[in-house]
User: Fold this.
Amino acid sequence: MTGCLRSHVRNVTDRLSNPFDLSPNCDRHVPGFGDVNAAFHVVGDHPGVHGGIDEELPFRGQSWSSRFFETLSAGGLLQTEQPWKANAVSEVGPTYFSYIHLCDRSNFQSYLGAVTQNQECWRGRTV
Assistant:
């Protein structure tokens, strides 16, 4: 971010993985990873489609994963081709990785059960 906007944006968190401490009610999920304050966000559908279940990091474990990260690095959106080895947000670069659905939807029955259970949790609560 540049100019006036940067001075008005506050740092949300310095945590690299699962920055909002999300823990969805499902068997398998992949939290976000990277700099949540980044100007560039990569958003996938869910880990069953875009990978990450085994490593618990978005977009990992697919046949195209290494080329994907290499391309982001070559384009200046990552400081390294292996951001998962970083120890700090500053080592990753100006990018945040996440999914629309954190839960693995490839097992739809399990996913549906988690959604139903989450809805039950919120019934009757005042927001």
In short: The chain has one domain: 12-122. The chain has a mean pLDDT of 75. The helical segments are 4-8, 47-50, 65-74, 89-92, 108-122.
